[in-house]
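Dig into these lines:

——
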Amino acid sequence: MRLIVTGGASGLGKAVALEAAARGAKVAIVDIDAKGAEAVAGQCKGIAHHADLINDDAAKIVADCTAKLGGLDGLVNNAGYGAGEAFLEMKPSTWDRTFDLNVRALAFLTSAAGKIMAAQKKGRIVNITSPASRMALPNYTAYAASKAAVDSVTRAAAVALAPHGVRVNSIAPGMMDTPMQRDTEIAFAKLEGRSDIEKFLAERTARIPVGHRVEPEEVAEAVLWLLFDAPDYITAERMNLSGGLDKD
């Protein structure tokens, strides 16, 4: 498999890239963090592609990576942004950045990759969504709304690409100890007037029915299942890995 992973320099993207490479995939790590992308590429014998997904052209990013990979079989839209802020104090700049990266970039990367995959009559795309898309989060409204939009884009892309042999699904991870998750929870604590961060985190973890947070490597296993192993009949599906936090 020849695979593009956005936001692959750290967190879940890194875990996906490493585990995909371990299964024989040739991976292009796309990230605004050039040094981080190079480091992960070195670990998985892949390709680092420095890009600003908000400002760079999505079609060119996909075309350049496809050329370096010698083709394209899979795309994981993992790059994302979220900022905690009170609903009554929301800033337009937060919404702009959140939707530009989480939704617009994802949609156009999916479209660009979809065109290549449709021409070859095969391909798999996995979008990273969130339980937040179905929760009332007044301190995280822009992020939650952006992930609801990701769910919508996933369904639309799945239907558009289904006749061409391309499958589009999503993964909704629960609480992961990634840099973005930690920064967000620190912001939540401040907004709620909490000074004991560790106690605050423990209380949030206790809300998860299975009793613990998920590791990026566990989520990566699910992403790889959709890329490599899922039956071809599965498309437009949202897979929850939230330990029971998000209930279908």
